[in-house]
Amino acid sequence: MDDVTKNRYRTGLEVRRSVLGDPHVDRAEDTATDFDRPFQQLITEAAWGTVWARPGWSKRERSIVTLALLAALGHDEEVAMHVRATANTGATRDDICEAFLHVAVYAGVPAANRAFKIAKEVFAQMDEAAHG
């Protein structure tokens, strides 16, 4: 791994941890095998070390766009993960609602309906953890 790649990976790991939290990233790293370790490196460098680390947009803005895209594409597990991550990105429940309303108009009501359902389940879990 050259220095540029090492720096991108280190930056990506920092950003990934700041958005998804240490427990999530630790689990991903601890369960990586020789088979999927290259994939973990790729997403850490590309998604987190390149795209999420770019200047110009806040983590809140990136979070909102990411949620809309994931919902539109029907990536349910990723929607749930990124709804949880809003605790770290500053995207509010109102922001998420607005993003999913856009999904309904531009990607279809069924996709938005599913995303709202997932978000409500995650919010309930988050609320329980905070108050329970």
UniProtKB/TrEMBL annotation:
Residues 39-121 form the Carboxymuconolactone decarboxylase-like domain. It is an enzyme of class 4 (lyase). It holds the Pfam family CMD. Gene3D superfamilies: AhpD-like. The keyword Cell inner membrane does not apply. Its EC number is 4.1.1.44. Keywords: Lyase. GO terms for molecular function: 4-carboxymuconolactone decarboxylase activity; peroxiredoxin activity. The keyword Lyase applies. SUPFAM superfamilies: AhpD-like (SSF69118). InterPro entries: 4CMD/NDH-1_regulator (IPR052512), AhpD-like (IPR029032), CMD-like (IPR003779), Decarb_PcaC (IPR012788). This is 4-carboxymuconolactone decarboxylase. It comes from Mesorhizobium plurifarium. The gene is pcaC.
